[in-house]
Amino acid sequence: MKKKLRYSNSLNISVGLTTAICLINLSFVIIFLAIDSKYELAFSNSVYIILTINTAIIIFVLIMFFIYCRRLRTKVIQPVELLKEELDKLTSGDIATPIENNDVEGMEDIYKALESIRRDLDTFNTLQQEKREERKTYVSGLMHDIATPVTRINGCASMICDGMVTTQEDICKFAEMIMQNTEDINIMLKNLAEIEKYDRTDIHSNLIPIDLSYVIGYYLNGLQLELAARGVTINFVNKCKNAPVCMLDVKSCKRVLMNLINNSIKYKKFDVPCEILMTIEDGEPGHLLFSLADNGTGIESGTEEKIFELFYRGDKARHNPDIGNGIGLYVSYQIMKANNSEMWAENNGNGLTVYVSIPLVDEIPVDWFEVEK
Q1: Do residue 48 and residue 183 come from a single domain?
Q2: pLDDT of 56-112, one tens digit each?
Q3: Global pTM value
Q4: Are residues 145 and 90 both part of a single domain?
Q5: What are the CA-CA distances from residue 297 to residues 331, 332, 341 (Å)?
């Protein structure tokens, strides 16, 4: 604003000085002619010619100066003021109204750049609004999901404290129910912590070259006893011709494996033992294809992409508020996206298969135990 005032004052001073000089010069001519007329002084014709030429020059200068000032205001000052108005709209938060060129010659590129900035801001604002609505839905659903196991834990503890459960067998059953519901809450809280991390665009994963077959085998080996106790059968098949070396964040990949396995266990068919088959094989050129197939309830057609959305549980076949909170697959999708990989899901006729396409690298894999340190 100060620059605008300074510029306007300078222009006004220039106009005033030029006008004053011309008027003073013209006044001298008029005074000279008045004296000549009153006292009938005998001046030569050359003097009158000079006066006439001087007067014409003064008038011409005034006309040209005012034309110049008008053109300056039309071509420079007004376009700059219009541009400033558009900038004021952006700074005030009005990013929904498109920025028009206003037929200002020579400023087309500036207006195009401003319109591009406005569109980017509008898109960013829309995404932020969607995320706010998404988080509202998520928080509301999470509160409901956490309330369910908390109520069960409170009920079990109350019955034990009130002496309604007396036999050792019943106490063990209630204690097991408390432990299971506590574990459900723990999983929800872990996924909640992961959302903030993997919902940002500035994810900095610790990408290193690893042999994926070795990582999966090592991880599953530590889960065998736990999975067997839960009645889960899991097999791993490596169909790759060469060592499947990929640039991945090891801890994040372990998190994905855990989420996918838990998802298959949660949505297994009633009274049917859960069976999981993990496979890695050569995919598209330069890519490894990982798949995890289960014999669970599967998903409805048309929801293949929606199941990776935050808090999505709209599929009737996989909708169970007591055992699912719609976070695990979302977190897994975001993790693999941060690891430059693509994830999707399909029905396999007997359950659900989740696929992950991972880029291969021509590097020597890092030792697993060194990574763990």
Answers
A1: no
A2: 777 777 777 777 777 777 777 777 777 777 777 777 777 777 776 666 666 667 777
A3: 0.55
A4: no
A5: 21, 20, 26
